[in-house]
Amino acid sequence: MASLIRENGRDSWKLRWHDSEGRRCSIGLGVMPKKSAEQFKSRFEELQGVVRSNTPKPVGLIEWLDGLDDELHSRLAAKGFVEPRAKRSLREFCDSYQESRRDIAGATSIRDRQVVDLLIEFFGPHRS
Fold first, then answer.
1. 5, 76, 99, 121: which has the highest count of C-beta atoms within 10 A?
2. d(CA 67, CA 36)
3. What is the distance between the alpha carbons of residues 55 and 49, in angstroms, rounded to a whole number?
């Protein structure tokens, strides 16, 4: 069971719950309307039940998790509720895209490789 706490009279919310060992834990949700915070709490409680019972996540819960911004998702990951999102570098993304496009002709493939090289030169190889 989780509870919502309004921080400093603002529209900033914190979600608080007790873990399986009885310790109090919390996640800051940031500024959002009360209704959105209540919906987050409801989904969080569903996620908490799935994690505790070690059952598969329902499709609706997976879609909700996929729609979360990176900041909230990383906060849930830090508490062990979800796996951290993997970030690929620009080079990895471009390479996987080119691997998936085996249907293109040789000249197009060469042109695409040149474009990728220019992107890497401009943005750097480790940009995500």
1. 76
2. 14
3. 9
